[in-house]
Every structure is written in structure tokens, then in C-alpha cells.
Amino acid sequence: MHYWLMKTEPDECSIDDVLAAPGRKTAWSGVRNYQARNFMRDAMRIGDGVLFYHSSCAEPGVAGIAEVASAPYVDASQFDRKSPYYDAKSKRDDPRWVNVDVRALRKTRLLPLTEIRKDKRLATMWLLRPGSRLSITPVSAREWAYLMSRLD
């Protein structure tokens, strides 16, 4: 089993939105970074744990727990000319982008980025690496276990 931190802007898709969605699921679409895409395409498996992270907001941080709920599949938004995620270079017979479904399990207390930064036990988290702006990052089993104890 793997663990992931997946960032979303809460005004686009919050933990509350996903908890209210049918089946508590959403397609994690619109990812346009090759490394993040490769995590979804090559490494994510159904049942992997997800830290649902609110970003680009007043107080960014972990807002809930989720799980990967599907195998990767073609992200249809890359072909939609009206979508902000349209990619004119992507071809239907050779798509560039994939997504997975994510199922929200529960909302947690907000664990702010400021608190994560201050915790020495999380100093090596991918999220905290200088220059790291990826929307999807791996989380170690040790980090996951520690964070779970902090979120309850």
C-alpha cells in the first residue's frame, strides 16, 4: 500500500464537496504535471491512502482522509476545448493525461501547513521540499502513521 498527499483548491473541490458527492467520489482530473501524472498512472493503486489537502486558500493544510478508488483512466478534460485543462497537443489515440477517482473517507481537523512545517518528525516530507509545488506527492508509511495520530 502507498500513501499520497493530493492538493486541491477548496473553491474548486473541497473535502466537503467530495463527501457530499455520489459515492463520496470524484475524478482527480486536470493534473498537468508529468511527475504527478506518472504517480497516478504508474504507482497509485485502489485502496491507497490519501491526505486530502486544501491549497491556494487562506489556510492551506490537510482537511481530510481519502483513498484511491479507481485505476487510472484517460482524463477527458484534455479534449474539452471549453475546459481550463484542455491540451491541444493531446491526441485521443495517444492521450497525455490520466486521472484516478478519489473517495473521501472523512473530514479531519484542519492540519495547517504552518503546523506541518514546525514538526521536526515531518521535516523530510516531500511536501516541504524547497521548490516542491507538485499537486500529488508520496507520503511515507512513517509519515502517514504519525499524521493519522495528529488528525484524530
How would you describe what is shown here?
The chain is built from four helices and eight strands; from the N terminus they run E-H-E-H-E-E-E-E-E-H-E-H. The protein is an alpha+beta fold and 152 residues long. The strands form two sheets. Strands 2-7-4-3-1-8 form a six-stranded mixed sheet. The longest helix is centred in the C-terminal third of the chain and has 11 residues, at 141-151. The protein is globular, with a radius of gyration of 15 Å. The model has no long low-confidence stretch (mean pLDDT 96).
Key features of this structure:
single chain, 152 residues, alpha+beta, six-stranded mixed sheet, two-stranded antiparallel sheet, 4 helices, 8 strands, 22% helix
Given helix and strand content, the structural type is: alpha+beta
**Unreliably modeled segments:** none
How many helical stretches?
A: 4
Q: Please indicate the percent range of residues in DSSP E strands (runs of 2 or more).
A: 25-35%
Q: Care to count the β-strands?
A: 8
> Kindly, what is the distance between the CA atoms of the first and last residues, rounded to a whole number of angstroms?
21 Å
In round numbers, the mean pLDDT is: 96
- Globally, the shape reads globular
Biggest sheet character: 6 strands, mixed
Instruction: Report the order of strands and helices.
Output: EHEHEEEEEHEH
The strand line-up of the biggest sheet is 2-7-4-3-1-8
Helical percent range?
A: 10-25%
Write down the Rg: 15 Å
